[in-house]
TrEMBL record:
Database matches in PROSITE patterns: HTH_GNTR
Keyword terms of this UniProt record: DNA-binding, Transcription, Transcription regulation
Organism listed in the record: Salana multivorans
One protein family per Pfam: FCD
Protein name: GntR family transcriptional regulator
Length: 228
């Protein structure tokens, strides 16, 4: 099994002053490594190695690892240490069942509550995704798509919804990156964005249902290919 090998601050020493958000930055980096495919199922993460590569102490690395365990992206086993988890077929099915309920709710709430500045930011993310799609930049496209989903939840402005989604963030992010039909996914994002912009609650909900079903079909096809 391989170990992690990327940097947050290349060659940088551990910071002199404590950074209260350092654990969050390290969590984001490690999550991106997993979701972008830099780390694969079974790869081992070593606190000391990661801390040295990121130029941080081991404490924020340990905190980040614990958070990602909670998100279902990492696991810890005796004599194996911390490794990247393989998401099971059953998990995928169950996550999509939950996603159908929560993302439809998020889209409907966003359509009801979106402010002009929210719409502008959401449209900018859709444009960014289109740019990445046309350039063939898969990693950037996946991150833009994930940002679109995050923005819709933010616009929905429901703290309970955000809290319920938080433990699923890692696995949802992984599923969003199983994007075998990028043109279709992008088109659906654009349609949902415009429904939110026009405050059409019913249409936003209907489009969100269709989008989750499209994503489910794409993810299942990808999983079948991986298993085959």
């Amino acid at each position: 099994m391989s170990e992690s090998s990327a940097v947050l601050t290349p060659g940088g020493p551990a910071p002199d002053a404590p950074d209260p958000l350092l654990w969050d930055r390290v969590t984001t980096v490690l999550r991106d490594w997993i979701l972008d495919g830099r780390l694969h199922p079974g790869d081992r993460l070593v606190e000391r190695t990661i801390a040295e590569e990121l130029g941080v102490s081991r404490l924020p690395v340990r905190d980040a690892i614990n958070i990602l365990k909670g998100e279902g992206l990492l696991t810890s086993r005796p004599r194996q240490g911390v490794t990247v988890r393989r998401i099971t077929h059953r998990e995928v099915v169950e996550i999509f069942e939950v996603r159908l309920a929560l993302e439809v709710l998020a889209a409907r709430l966003a359509a009801a509550r979106a402010r002009p500045e929210d719409v502008a930011e959401l449209r900018a993310l859709v444009v960014s995704a289109r740019t990445s799609l046309e350039a063939g930049e898969t990693v950037a496209l996946n991150r833009a798509n994930n940002a679109i989903h995050d923005k819709i939840v933010e616009i929905a402005d429901n703290d309970v919804l955000s809290t319920v989604l938080a433990p699923l963030k890692g696995r949802l992010g992984w599923l969003l990156r199983q994007n075998g039909r990028p043109e279709l996914i992008h088109a659906e994002h654009g349609e949902i964005c415009e429904a939110i912009a026009s405050h059409d609650v019913e249409l936003a909900g209907e489009l969100a249902v269709r989008h989750v079903e499209t994503s489910r079909a794409v993810a299942m096809a990808v999983l079948s290919d991986l298993a085959g």
